[in-house]
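Budget justification, computational time. The allocation requested in the original proposal was used primarily to generate structure tokens for proteins on the priority list. As evidence of use, we reproduce two of the resulting records. The first is shown immediately below.
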Amino acid sequence: MADPMSQEDYRARIAELEEERKTLDADSAGRRFSQEEKDRWNDLSAELEEASSTLKELEQRAAQIAAAAGDEKRTEDGAHFQVRRPNAPTDIWDLSTLTRSWDDPAVEKRELHDRAMRAIDGASYPHPDLDDDVARAHVEKIMGDPEMASYEGGDLHSQRIARHVLATGSPGYKRAFTKYLAGAPRTAEDEGYLHRSMSLSGASGGVAVPFVLDPTLLPSYNGAVNPYRNIADVRTITVDEWRGVTSAGITAAFQAEAAATTDASPTLASVSISTEMARVAIPYSIEIGMDWGSFASDMASEIQNSKDVLEAAKFATGSGTNEPFGVVTGATTLFTSSDSAALYAADFYGWHDALPPLYRSRSVFAMNNATLSRLRQLDTAGGSNMLTPNLQLRSAANVGGPGAPDMTDSRANVDLFGKAVHESSGIAAFADNALIGVFGAFNPYFKIIDRVGLSIENIPHFFDATTGFPTGQRALFAYWRVGSKVVAANAFRTLRVA
């Protein structure tokens, strides 16, 4: 049973409903509602009427109780005090109303976190391949616990993420963002929303994508093309560079009674991963911007697809110079096949066995589909027991039947020596001297670092190079920052063709 709502909760919900109706009306300016929009308007109106009626009754009841009591203050012998409940915020998006206390600075960060959680829980995530509950859980995990001191640039990580969610999640911001993409006239209020998003998200000149569309916050990647976000250690930061420490491990030993212990201190090394900028430009005509009702969400989906294709290549073989440092580039310990013309079962056994036991138990394979096809041809009868169906698939009575996993998701559907195999389109296919596969502990030794926030700038006009006149086209210029790096080369073995 849900907890009862207070008067303040009802006022906050009424404000949200009214703001969403304004947004819906602005998005359909100059045209009739579609059936879907009409249904949504009716649902909002019905809920607004019910919430307003309930609030009115609650206020009347409270007034009658106060009148009967004669005064809000209660007096007892030897004591005089007033019982007062702090007012909850009527608008969770208005950061100027955050409660601040000199005595307890944690009051502000807790309220900031609570507001962001309300925004996350109440949001709808329009990506077609993303479940709302999965999206909510992922954003909440990235935001983290406000009580845990994870400092980045002197500020709490959870506070920065919470502010980003609130700055880009309000109905007013979504309305202003949609107008910005379409090049439509904007009010002073719209400009205020956009300006706040630029200052809070760190965007320079561009505006931040609403968090419900932001691929740097949501797990909306296509695992079939880009498996690395499923198998690597993915971190989200709000600064430019991730810094950590690696260790070769501590050596333990048994010793005699009362014997002096030996020095088992590990060899520590610092590691830093910078976030590099990726960009995409999307030209479109003014007419498309005017007529395409779902332009914002559709363009976010297209940007995500282009992001997947680019990252699939760079997470595999990126040079690390102005782009991520790929796993093939960083996994420098090679196992060479026995023949340049073919692959044999012994090559795969040797590749598997070359990885130290310390890393083998948590390792997975990544290879091009062409290499995986060669592997399948070596084990057509299953006699060598190299390839088996994935354990998740084996647990189901039949594919597509009750309990069977969704075959369209990003999980591996085959095991090699009991380790999951993931297809990577960015790794090379079979050729002389080619690096055709990586086996290793991707999590935690291959790290992907996302700097939160994908920003977009609207280039309002294209001009003809010959005449200098406008062409009637605009363009969206989107950019985000991401980095990756192998932090322990010994945790991987790369298969090289002789």
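The second record produced under the same allocation is shown here.
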Amino acid sequence: MLVPKPDAINPGSLILVTGASGYVGGRLVPRLLEEGYRVRCFVRSPQKLDEYPWRSHSEVSVCEGDLSDPDTLIAACQNVDAAYYLVHSMISAGDEYARRDRELASHFARAAKQANVRRVIYLGGLGEMGEGLSNHLRSRREVEMVLRTDGVPTTVLRAAMIIGSGSASFEILRYLVDRLPVMVVPKWVETMTQPIAIRDVLRYLVQCLRVAETTDQTIDIGGPDILTYREMMNLMCDAIGLRRRKIIDVPVLTPRLSSRWIGLVTPVTSKIARPLAEGLKNRTVCRNDQAQQWMPGPLRGAREAVDAALGKLQAGKIETRWSTAGELPGDPSWSGGTVFRDQRETNVMAPPEATFTAVCRIGGQHGYWGADWLWQIRGWMDQMIG
């Protein structure tokens, strides 16, 4: 006997968002509010939400808790119609982080079941199961299965690279092409991927609430373009206005080495870069267009998405960044919001105006305080490589 699907979850319903301080969650909340939903944010550190303008919205409530604490989870799920699970560790540390992710997802699934939540929505990653699937993507598959274990209807949206100002993938790509005229990359640079704009990810996440057909379904979401990572790098160069970089792929460059190089060249740490680098070897392309059949709407192409992200960056209007997510078990100590500042002082016997003028004259035709010839050599080297 066929079991009828639950009705659509319409505006006015109470929606729980876990990971509301993260990159996607911080942008999802205002979209839900715009559509008329009431939102409850489940976060470890409520003060992290204070910087968001939607924090003071009358339809936003905040529940402080921890995914490892079943009691706070059950309280957060009470009277909720749908719950977004947007929590996933980006620190690749052997099997421990994957085991911990399964454990946290299990706590959430049981709490949702006990509170009679009508639907769970999870944002996972594209990539087919098999021996070659990266540990990070495999862990996301495991989380999908765990969320469905207790029987709560779960909508899984799978995405590849998300292009948006402040996303880890976008920042890595931007900094690599901006800083390296010549790049030595893994052979996976020829792997096909189907990137999607963050705007379109958010549209699918919100729209699936009202589309009953998406209940308990796994849906691939992606933009209209299927590209190799090499083509993505060239596209980024064109968008920034740089000459296309010399890209040399070698078979011996491992994810570990790649992540260390990314950590050196970009602001994204090697621990976060590693699972992203591992995922390069997996083809991440949508299997069908079911998402557009159920939730039709315009999709931004890769170039349009990159231009939009760069525009937000230049205007200083970045809603969230990859680094805004709260600390999870297995994350480094600094990920919970601590900011390190290198501050040094020295006393100068001169007026502030004169001191500032002297500092501004360092370099250029005036030279440096010492070893001018070394700086000249460095300048020649920069000119030689463009």
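A brief technical remark on that second record: Residues 68 and 148 are 18 Å apart (CA to CA).
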